[in-house]
Amino acid sequence: MPRSDQAALIRARLPRLEALLSPCRLCPRVCGVERAKGARGFCGLADSLLVYCANVHHGEEPPLSGSRGSGTVFFSGCNLRCLFCQNYAFSQLMNGEAMTPAGLAGQMLALERRGAHNINWVTPTPQVVRAVEALAIAREGGLTIPLVFNCSGYESVEVLHLLDGIVDIYLPDAKYADSASAQSCSSAPDYPGANQAALREMHRQVGNLELDKDGIAVRGMLVRHLVLPGNLAGTREVLAFLASSFGKDVAISLMRQYFPAHRAQDHPGLGRRITWEEYEQALHAFDNLGLTTAFIQEWDE
Fold it and tell me: In total, how many domains does the chain have?
């Protein structure tokens, strides 16, 4: 779809997204607060944009960062309460700068001028209404690069339906295979079912990851899975779901970067880094399931 046509599509979808904001039904929590009246949801947000920073980022997976970096917008707030969140300064402590949709549109246009391969929204779910409004302004202002929806994977299928044709690349987490770990680590016992439904809808929209001639992502889904100590994430089960649902070529980022950030020391089992043996088990599970497309982090003591 031409980017100019996409702006019209966004404008047409905005009223339906607005209707889900207050009472809030933007994520599976359906907390129902009147955010338009100033009430704050579980995510800590009312109805205004709060952005931690917007910058060119070179630390994403190679098809996203490429040679010029990913134009990353870090949104404040989150609909999960991960004890080990590495972004807790803005996801949990709510550090950030208030911004208008027009202001955010200007930031995105500036990131494209700086050479970013894409616009990468990090944790956009609680602020998706105003973020999409900003995207319409940016597209009308000439923004051409793809949009990456970089999220926890705890998403509303109804909201995702409204993003069909707007998001080019989905970059969701697949955090947990079982409800007990999801509740214990992130206060979301329904995460596994909600996550699987969300991933199916994302893949229906954009399919497997597509790269251009330079190896840069232009469309598709790339799923991140963080290996946790003591197999709290249920890595083999998560990978098995991905293989059976989306085929052997589904793109997976198998991450070994866990460390006990934020409140992880308060949880039995999360207070240490993973071992090489634990990461090796994850790699073996990937291979044994016949999966073919992985972004693997090298082991570094």
Answer: 1
